[in-house]
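Handoff note, outgoing to incoming analyst
You'll be picking up this chain. Sequence as last confirmed:
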Amino acid sequence: MARTTSTPLYIGDDLRARAEDAARTAGTSLSAWVRDAIAERLERQAVIADGLAATREWEAEHGPLPQNVLDEAQRELEDAGILPRRTA
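Most recent structure output, in case you need it:
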């Protein structure tokens, strides 16, 4: 198991209360819930970085992606919760 260290987090009372409620609902400790949230966020960022790198590679070989393809990708990422929904 990986070594753990204590790291103070400075968050507002409301955010802490919401996180504690979420951890309780998940049946886990606040520390475990925060660790999982951080790991999920890092994985999400890695997926985005990998996708952007693949897109740059494809565009270098084939040219820019058509706008309709970019729009569809945006919708799929929004639907998956990876990107926030755009407002009109």
